[in-house]
Amino acid sequence: MLDNSIGCYGKLVSEVLTAISQVYWGRMYKYIKDNNIDYKDVNCFILNPESMAVYFSKTFIAIEYCGNPYVKNIVEKSERMIVVRDFTKEDLTSKQVIEKIIGFTFDGTSGITFPLYSDIYEDLMVPTNAGLDKLIDLKWNFAAQNSMVSFNSQGFDIVEGQFVRLINGMFFDAKDDDLKTRIIKWIDFIPCHYNEPEEGELDEIGFSLEVYDRLWQADLFYQYPEPADFKYDKLPKINRFIELFGNSENSEPTITSFLAQQENHFILNMGFMGTGVHSQVKCEWQSEEKDEIIPDFFVVRANGYADIVEFKLPKVKRNTVVGRNNREQFSAEINSYIAQTRVYRSYFEDPNNRRWFEKKYGFKVYKPKRYLVVGRRNDFECDEWIEIKSDYTDVEIVTYDDLVDTVVPNSINKEFSKEDKCLK
Asked: Distance of CA 4 to CAs 57, 84, 181, 309, Å?
């Protein structure tokens, strides 16, 4: 299923993906069938991504694979979400297009932009300076990450005419004292030649897929980066979480019940920088006659105070941003979710409620940050939603993809930290 925002690029996208299938995915499937290979022994992620994003620029076509990179089976789908963003009509350098894809503007003062030549780059980590400061503040263990790291740079650029692949690219930024994470699991930058059309003429984009003729067999058996200890402990639980929210038949209580299990608390602790998780805590009003409220989760921070995390379904019914001509706003659906959390703020503004709550449950809540977990990253792709979100000072919208992408690198980091302590 093509995103309805792509306009005339629908046919071009279909042609590009069909051409790739002929020399790449199709050959993989044929090889599997001809050699009777079990799917658990091949790279199912590249064969069967949950969704894809295709980016057009004047010097490259980028194809991003989204979903669970550790999946070990093929799920037949009648349609797959494909999001397309066209940057050919904007006067952007290739570096600026890359920043648009990542979602961060790199603020390094070194004056250095790293050029990426024809190669495959695993575990590339590039934080902005603001992101680096926040990682240090959070005591993020850089030594635990097996990464190629770039500090104080102005980002990176794709050398024109070069095929470049990023696998498990990690990018960090910070805004309003919050860490922002963007994990690119797999993206191919395919060099292209773009001819600016005259008025009334069609765009012309030329590209070569010769590189896939060389890579298809190695990619078929590629093993996505993962530490051995991690895959036997936390990875299966994260996979289960992904499976739950990836199935639209699962309800909100099904998802929150899974997260409420003690063995799965690490997902919320790592996702929201907590030290403890409390679920289904009943909040009784002390000064007014009102029905009790029950937030999904309280995540206690290191200072003993807790924030509130509320879950909604990952499937958003309509566009998340509506309106036009500089009058964009969140949709009624998103605003209704935000409104539902306001009662939590009102409850903890009453000192009688706070005193009763702390005495009963043993932790404090005062002016909590309210996190609303809803939708998928594709639901919030437009630039306007970031500007609108800044108007909500104590509410943070987090997509399910953001949560998983934050948990996975933190979990890997924790596992290595344990090993480091044993070695010492």
From this structure: 19, 9, 27, 31
- pLDDT one-digit tens code per residue, 359-386: 999 999 998 988 988 887 777 665 555 5
Q: Which residues contact 326 (CB under 8 A, 6 or more apart)?
A: none
- The CA distance from 391 to 171, in Å, is 24
Handedness of CA 272, 274, 277, 281 (dihedral sign): negative
Q: What does DSSP assign to residue 73?
A: S
Query: Reduced to 3 DSSP states, what percent helix, strand and coil does the chain have, rounded to the nearest 5?
Result: 40, 25, 40
Q: Which amino acid does the sequence have at 239?
A: N
d(CA 344, CA 283): 9
Q: How far is 93 from 115, CA to CA, in rounded Å?
A: 13
Rounded CA-CA distance 67/377 in Å is 11
- The DSSP code sequence of 89-133 is TS---HHHHHHHHHT-----SS---EEE-SEEEESEEEE-HHHHH
| pLDDT tens digits, 200-231 | 566 677 888 999 999 999 999 999 876 555 54
Radius of gyration of the chain measured on its C-alpha atoms: 23
Residue 135, both tokens: 């990682």
Which helix (H) or strand (E) segment holds residue 140: the answer is none
Element (H, E) at 310: strand 306-311
For residues 260 and 345, give the distance between their C-alpha atoms in angstroms, rounded to a whole number.
22
CB 154 within 8 A of CB 110: yes
Angle (nearest 5°) at CA 9 between 6 and 11: 125
Show the CA angle centred on residue 267, arms to residues 265 and 273, nearest 5°: 95
Contacts for 123 with CB less than 8 Å, ≥ 6 apart: 145, 146, 147, 148, 167, 168, 169, 170, 225
C-alpha span between 65 and 47 (Å, rounded): 10
User: With contact defined as beta carbons under 8 Å apart, do 212 and 20 qualify?
Assistant: yes
Distance CA 38, CA 196 (A): 46
Tokens standing for 36? 């009777």
Pairing mode of beta strands 329-330, 204-207: unpaired
Q: In angstroms, rounded to a whole number, what is the distance separating the alpha carbons of residues 56 and 332?
A: 32
Summarised one tens digit per residue, pLDDT across range 239-270 is: 778 878 877 778 889 999 999 999 899 999 99
User: What's the token pair of residue 382?
Assistant: 């437009």
